[in-house]
Amino acid sequence: MQYTTLGKTGLVVSRLMLGTMTFGEGTSYGFDHPVNQERANNMVSQALEAGINFFDTANNYGEGRAEEYLGRALGSQRSNVIIATKLGARTGPALTDAGLSYRHVIASTEASLKRLGTDYIDLLQLHVPDPLTPFEETARALDHLIQRGLVRYVGYSNLNDWQAATFLATQRQHGYAPFVSAQMYYSLLGRDIEYGVVPFLRYEGLGLLVWSPLAGGFLSGKYSRELTSESSGRLASFDYLSILSIDREKGYTVIERLREIAAAHGEATPAQIALAWLLTKPVISSVILGASTPEQFADNINASNLCLSPEEVASLDSLTEPKPLYPYRWRASGGDSVVRQALNIS
């Protein structure tokens, strides 16, 4: 297993982490949760045996059951691992069952602690933006939780670059505990965050946690131009192709290249190559692996053992290069061309 620190903190984390969105049984908010407690126990044991010490969940996964299953599965191992959970998305029918108000942040965290069966959460993340709540109010709530010892670090998920930058400035202005990480969608078929988010993370030293690294399972290798039916897996229960703006035709081309590279690595799979490509990106602290079966999870874990050649990485970079987007790509290097040449800056 590969390890790194979470952003510029001293917290050592595995570069692969187990995601629990599949935990909980049944369907909620349009997502299937096929993993019961027994299977969750097996997958958590697999993760620990592979050297994974980082686990991601959320208070709305499986209507809260994902946190419960994870807590039970970890049991006595809890003190040896890092638990990250999220809040802010809807968890019930009441008007107050969503958002990032002071009230909801405190109440949600206390509820998550009970479901997880723990005294503290290592990384508490804002799940979604809340346009109604001032940043200062949410930042104050997060800092209060840290001061109480209920939370160790705070991060965010799915904020755009200006929201994250403004929120971080608010935290610093008031002396509150700042963000240390961002959890964002990133894959070979979804590199939008390279425009503004990634440069922001590098500048601030925040760690990147990647969700849906296989584009909702599309890059698993199960699909091709000849086999287009998404009758099983995540694509069967949720329209990831539309939500993640996946270009299906481009996706098939990428899958073909993944198969070619996988063949050059013996027993490797397209999914492993797609994950190994992400692990070449220094800004990424950890990649979240979500799986429905122990077999699928075991296959994905093996990506940590792959070492892609510079040529293979470059070919995937070139094949999936994002289209220019103003103003991010406008004279991307910045500065004067004559001065850049004199200083040998590309």
Structure characterization notes:
The strands form 3 sheets. The protein has an 8-stranded parallel β-barrel with strand order 3-6-7-8-9-10-11-12, surrounded by 6 helices. The mean pLDDT is 91. With 346 residues, it is of the alpha/beta class. The protein has a single domain, classed as NADP-dependent oxidoreductase domain (TIM Barrel), CATH 3.20.20. The chain has helices spanning 37-49, 65-74, 102-116, 135-147, 161-174, 197-204, 234-237, 240-243, 248-264, 270-278, 294-301, 310-319, 337-342, and strands spanning 3-5, 12-14, 16-19, 27-28, 31-32, 54-56, 82-87, 121-126, 151-157, 179-185, 207-211, 284-290. A hairpin with a 6-residue loop joins strand 1 (3-5) and strand 2. Keywords: Oxidoreductase.
In short:
The chain has helices spanning 37-49, 65-74, 102-116, 135-147, 161-174, 197-204, 234-237, 240-243, 248-264, 270-278, 294-301, 310-319, 337-342; strands at residues 3-5, 12-14, 16-19, 27-28, 31-32, 54-56, 82-87, 121-126, 151-157, 179-185, 207-211, 284-290. The chain is built from 13 helices and 12 strands.
- What is the count of helical runs? 13
Low-confidence stretches: none
CATH architecture: Alpha-Beta Barrel
State the end-to-end distance.
34 Å
- Outline type: globular
CATH topology: TIM Barrel
In total, the number of domains comes to 1
The proportion of residues in beta strands is 15-25%
What is the radius of gyration computed over CA atoms, rounded to a whole number of angstroms? 20 Å
Strands, total number: 12
Round the mean pLDDT to the nearest integer and report it: 91
Largest sheet: spatial strand order = 3-6-7-8-9-10-11-12
Domain NADP-dependent oxidoreductase: 15-320
GO molecular function: oxidoreductase activity
Protein name: Oxidoreductase
Keywords: Oxidoreductase
